Amino acid sequence: MPALFLALVLNAGAGATAPAAQGAVRMKASEIAAYNANLTRDHPNYILCVNSEKTGSLVKKKVCRTNQEWARLAEAGNRDARETAETMNKGWSHSFEPDLEEGAE
Predict the structure, then answer these.
(1) H and E: helices and strands count for the chain
(2) Which of 64, 76, 82, 94 has the most CB within a 10 Å radius?
């Protein structure tokens, strides 16, 4: 683990993407702070942690991801919502339209 942390710190200024993306989940708060020390908050590899509440639970879970990962997840969620809204606006409850040709069942 110390070798991974050292590699992350040394590569932080060089635009390390893969180690941070894979290791952010397992990193301690102090390791994340050291990794983020040379990055601006809007840098794609800056690790941002958010406390997430699960419905029906009093325990909050800390979720840490890079800005790039958060943006990718937001885009995927927006795309899914847009596709669902478009499908519902068509009046169909499935993601495909039924065959409405004469004689088709």
Answers:
(1) 4, 2
(2) 64
Q: Average model confidence (pLDDT) for the chain? A: 76
Task: Report, as an integer, the average pLDDT of 70-83.
Answer: 94
| Residue range(s) defining the domain that contains residue 8 | 2-90
Backbone angles phi, psi at 59, to 5 degrees: -90, 130
CA-based radius of gyration for the chain: 21
Examine residue 105 and state whether it is found in any structural domain, yes or no: no
Give residues with Cβ within 8 angstroms of 50, minimum separation 6.
Answer: 62, 63, 64
Q: Which residues of 41-63 are buried (b: 16+ CB within 10 A; e: fewer)?
A: eeeebbbeeeeeeeeeeeeeeee
Under 8 Å between Cβ of 50 and 2: no
Whether 96 maps to a domain, the answer reads: no
Q: Is residue 95 part of a domain?
A: no
Instruction: Please give the pLDDT value at position 19.
Output: 52
Q: Tally the residues of the chain.
A: 105
**Is pTM beyond 0.85 here?**
no
